[in-house]
Amino acid sequence: MRDEELVAFLRWALPRMGLRFAGFKRFRSTVRKRIARRLRELGLSDLAAYRARLDADPEEWPVLDAMCRITISRLYRDRGVMDTLRDVVLPRAAERGSPVRVWSAGCASGEEPYTIALVWRVAVAPSHPGVAIEIVATDADAALIERARRGRYPHASARELPRSLRAAGFDETDDELVIKQDLSRAIDWRVEDLRRAMPDGPFDVVLCRNVAFTYLDEPVQREVGAKIVERLARPPAPGVLVIGQHETLPPGLDLAPLARCVHERVSDGRAA
User: Fold this and answer.
1) Average of per-residue pLDDT values in the chain
2) Is the domain defined by 79-271 classed in CATH 3.40.50.150?
3) pLDDT of residue 119
4) Exposure pattern of 33-44 as b/e (b: 16+ CB <10 Å)?
5) Where are the chain's structural domains?
6) 187, β-bridge pairs
7) CA-wise closest residue to 123 among 94, 96, 98
């Protein structure tokens, strides 16, 4: 399929799923391969035929939606963000008492929530005895959540992970890193699509990096963003929302209840 055909198709299809084309510009080749494979599976000749299939079969839309999920994740991804969580955000939350509640939204195969669990165990918990942490990790893809529960990663996934955390959290083989089972059991894994369901708050920290504010259409961003804000802890101990380096919050999203904490920024991301 030609690129212009794919672009026209995505501009038609993505808004119908609450997604926006701008988020997929860099990943068109990935989506193209997936759609091409689906066309072969269905015995369809081109995107026009696939569009007709979508018009006729509502059950095909969730299949297309799944093909448009982009997953990029590593352990301790974006060192500046994780360092700030380790040195500032989580200790500050721990000072407010137990439990500290953290939500990793769009957790993919679990690298982000495992990183938070390791940071807490090694860098925060020793100086805050008696303070517990509760981590909820959600993703729309059931297969990714199952992979997260298994907690097995190639060594390359840990290239940014400090050595102390690696030793504390993983058993190593020649081929992969295997998470220690007590860490996996400490995380509440859930299959949830941000557009349809969220865990109950309040949360001291919500990590929603390169998910809602990259791929969702602006009206859906505002709706999802408002629900996330509702789940953040309120003053005098306001919660922290962490978004991606290149993301911005949609116009009209009311952060007034969190004004006291909308000020922290780090080089590799933004904590608001």
Assistant:
1) 89
2) yes
3) 96
4) ebbeebbeeeeb
5) 3-67, 79-271
6) 135
7) 94
